């Protein structure tokens, strides 16, 4: 019933969603990655489409099929994702950064396979920081760019204590300059590659505007409700 009631409320709106997890190459056969499956981001793209939006899905190594009826842009590394997001954000109304973006990448990517024999018993990797796509967009917006764009971030945290988790979320949304931050708890057995999710949505002031639990599709609709309610 909630889905039917919401149907069409994003009609004509341009929504960009990032989903999945970036991979940062080390050599031609290896990468540093993360466990994001892309399910929650794909559900948001599907729900936005069902509500009438024109959707661009920027996909980094999805483990699930993308929804029909969306424009698919593939990105592998954090920097590729940044280029895709910057292009798509220029004429978007809403950007939802659900992808797990690698914070660091190998400082050097070698052209041939790293060999054990040349390394010995330990291998040290040197990593450099990737651009923080969301924080940079937040800063550009504060400087007057992207005037009509709604910016939504995600924060997956392992913090077990709910109050501490929310405090982290409040600090994070302030750092990012986003309109909303979707906070969820993740762990060895929680959050990834599962159908369900449980989230708290914070606004720019750090106040809770929504709490949702259930299938990733129903959580997607509650997140979109919170975005629509910004207007
Ligand atoms: N994000 C991004 N660019 C990065 C890292 C993260 O745009 N290089 C976005 C993510 O897509 C997400 C939000 O920022 O929407 C929060 O990501 P998260 O990893 O929780 O926050 P970080 O600022 O990277 O802090 P940390 O990982 O140390 O908790
Ligand atoms: Ca991070």
Q: What features would you highlight for this structure?
A:
binds calcium ion; alpha/beta; globular; binds cytidine-5'-triphosphate; two-stranded antiparallel ribbon; eight-stranded mixed β-sheet
Q: What's a concise summary of this model?
A:
This protein is of the alpha/beta class and 231 residues long. It contains 6 helices and 12 strands.
Topology readout:
Elements: H1 2-6, E1 14-20, E2 24-27, E3 30-32, H2 39-50, E4 54-60, E5 71-74, H3 78-89, E6 94-97, E7 104-106, E8 127-129, H4 133-142, E9 150-157, H5 162-176, E10 180-185, E11 196-203, E12 208-215, H6 216-228
Helix pairs in contact: 2-6
The structure holds cytidine-5'-triphosphate (CTP) and calcium ion.
Folded structure, characterized:
The protein is of the alpha/beta class. 29% of the residues lie in helices and 28% in strands. It has helices at 2-6, 39-50, 78-89, 133-142, 162-176, 216-228; strands spanning 14-20, 24-27, 30-32, 54-60, 71-74, 94-97, 104-106, 127-129, 150-157, 180-185, 196-203, 208-215. The protein has an eight-stranded mixed beta sheet with strand order 5-4-1-6-9-10-11-12, sandwiched between helices. A hairpin with a 2-residue loop joins strand 2 and strand 3 (30-32). Helix 2 packs across helix 6. Bound molecules: cytidine-5'-triphosphate and calcium ion (CA). Residues 78, 97, 99, 101, 103, 130, 132-134, 153-156, 172 line the site of cytidine-5'-triphosphate.
């Amino acid at each position: 019933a909630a889905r039917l009631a919401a149907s069409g409320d994003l009609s004509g709106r341009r929504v960009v969603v990032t989903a999945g997890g970036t991979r940062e190459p080390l050599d031609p056969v290896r990468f540093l990655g993360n466990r994001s499956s892309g399910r929650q981001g794909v559900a948001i793209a599907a729900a936005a489409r069902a509500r009438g939006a024109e959707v661009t899905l920027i996909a980094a190594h999805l483990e699930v099929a993308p929804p029909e009826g969306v424009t698919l842009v593939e990105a592998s590394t954090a920097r590729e994702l940044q280029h895709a997001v910057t292009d798509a954000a220029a004429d978007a109304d809403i950007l939802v950064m659900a992808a797990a973006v690698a914070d660091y990448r190998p400082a050097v990517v070698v052209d041939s396979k790293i060999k054990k024999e040349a390394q010995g018993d330990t291998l040290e990797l040197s990593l450099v920081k990737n651009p923080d796509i969301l924080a940079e967009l937040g800063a550009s917006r504060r400087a007057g760019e992207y005037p009509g764009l709604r910016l939504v971030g995600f924060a997956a945290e392992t913090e077990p204590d709910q109050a501490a988790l929310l405090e982290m979320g409040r600090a994070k949304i302030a750092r990012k300059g986003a309109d909303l931050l979707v906070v969820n708890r993740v762990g060895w057995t929680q959050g990834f590659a599962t159908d369900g999710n449980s989230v708290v949505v914070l606004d720019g002031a750090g106040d809770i505007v929504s709490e949702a639990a259930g299938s990733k599709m129903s959580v997607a609709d509650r997140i979109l409700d919170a975005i629509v309610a910004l207007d």
